[in-house]
Amino acid sequence: MEMKKAYLLLEGIEAGIALKVDSLFLESLPFIFSHWPYEVVSETDREIFATMELKDNGRFYFTSPYIDSKDSYRDALNAICAIVAELAWQRLREDPSLLCIHGAAASFAGRLVVFPATRKAGKSTLSVAMAAAGIRMFTDDFLPVSVKDDGIIRGISSGVSPRLRLPLPAQIGARATAFLAQRPLLSNKQYTYVKPLLSENAAFGESLPLGGFVFLERSDGQAAEMAEISKAEALKTLIYQNFSRAGNAGDILAMLEFVASNLPCYLLKYDEAEPAIALLKARFSGWEKALPHYYPRAQLTNEAANGAVPFTSYDDVSIGQFMHADGVQVVATDGKRFLTGRNGQSIHYLNEGAALIWQILSEPTSVDEAIEILLAAFPEQARAQVEKDVLRCFGEFGKNGLLKKIEMNLGQAARCAESSAA
Question: Lowest CB count within 10 Å: 7, 123, 228, 341, which one?
Fold first, then answer.
C-alpha cells in the first residue's frame, strides 16, 4: 500500500489539512468536493488545522487540536465524511460572523428554502429527489448564513455533493432513481455520494437570500401535506439545529428569532418524495412579500467579541436573593422564551415553569420566596414538587451565569437565615 504525503487546500478556507493517504483516498475527493474547488499539493506554508493518516492497520485516523479524541475510519469515504464535517466547523472558526444551520437548502424562485435537519426526516433523500426534479440544490447538510450591509440574510452554498444513506428508500421515486443511474456515485456499505452536474448544484460560495423554512416529518403511508407552524416552534427547532457555537449567542438568537418571525415557516408531512416536491413547487413558485431587512443588535459596552460578559457562576443558590444578571438577552415568541448564556456561546429554552420562575426573578428573590410565590399562585401543586422545580431552576440559572446575587445588609441577611432555618 503506497502512502502519499500531501496537503488538502480548499477555496475559502485559510488553513489546510495534512494527508498521509493512499491513491484511492485522493481519487475519491472529486466525487465529494464536486462543486468546491480544491487542490492537493506536496508542500504548503499554510496553517494546518487537521491531519488524516492511513495507518498500517488499514484504518484512517483523523486528528486535530479541535477534536478531543483520535477518531478512526475503516475506508476512504467515511474518512472524507469526517473531513467534510470538520470543514464546516473550520469555516465558522475562521469567520465567526457566520451562522450555520444544520439542514438542506434549495433554490425556489430566486430565494432559498431551508429544510432544517430532524432525525430520519429524509432531508438528503428529498434533496436528491429535488435535484432530479430540476430544483437547484445549495446543500443537503449544512448551510452557512451571513448578513451583509444591506440587511439581507443570505445562505451560502457548501459545494459538497449530496450524500444518501443506504439502502436507498423506495420513497425516493422513479425520477430520482433514473437520475442516480445517470450520475457518478461513490459508495460504501453505509453511504453513497452523488456527483451532480454543475447546473444541478450551486458552486461553493454562491449565495441567495433566505426565503422560508420547511420542517420535515416523514412517516410511512403519510400523504403529502404542508401547513404553517407557529413562530415559537420554528424558533425552537432552529436553535436546536444551529451549530454556530463559535459565534455570539446573542447575535445567533436575535437572527434566528428574526427569520422565524419574518419568513414563512411550514411543516411538511410526507412519505413519497415526488408528491412532496409537487407541493413545494406549488407553494414556492413565487414570493408574495419583499425580503425583510435585518440589522444586528448593538454590542454591549462590557461584551467581548464572542458575546461573553463578565459574570459569576453560583454553585449554591439556596441562601440569599438573586435576580436577572446584566447582559442576558431574552427573546419571546408566541409566549415561549429563550435566553442567551453569558458565556456568549449558549442559548437556553425556558419551559412554562422555568419562564414563570424567570419572571419572578425580575425582582430580588430567594429560593424560599419563589417557592411561596408559586404555591400561593398554584395551591393545587404539591409543595415537594414546587420546591424541587424551583431549586433546580435556580441552580441551572446560577450555574450558567444568568443570575446575580443581591448584596444584603446584616439585618436582611439575618432574616434570610432565619427564614431558611424555619
Answer: 228
125, 164 in Cβ contact below 8 A?
yes
Q: Are 134 and 108 in contact (CB under 8 A)?
A: no
Last residue in a domain, options 37, 67, 93: 93
Helix (H) or strand (E) holding 232: helix 231-241
Are both 86 and 210 inside the same structural domain? no
**Single-letter residue type at 276:** A
Domains held by the chain: number: 3
Q: pTM above the 0.70 mark?
A: yes
Gyration radius of the chain over CA positions: 25
Q: Please, where are the H alpha helices in 95-141?
A: 123-132
Q: What is the pLDDT of residues 333-352, one digit of tens each?
A: 666 777 776 544 567 778 88
Q: How many residues does the chain have?
A: 422
Candidates 47, 49, 51; CA nearest to 66 is 49
Position 292 in a domain: no
- DSSP summary character for residue 172: G
At which of 67, 93, 119 does a domain end?
Answer: 93
336 Cβ contact partners less than 8 Å away, ≥ 6 residues apart: 232, 235, 236, 349, 350, 355
Residue pair 180/200 in contact by the 8 Å Cβ criterion: no
Q: Looking at the structure, tell me whether residues 116 and 15 fall in a common domain.
A: no
Question: Are residues 131 and 51 both part of a single domain?
Answer: no
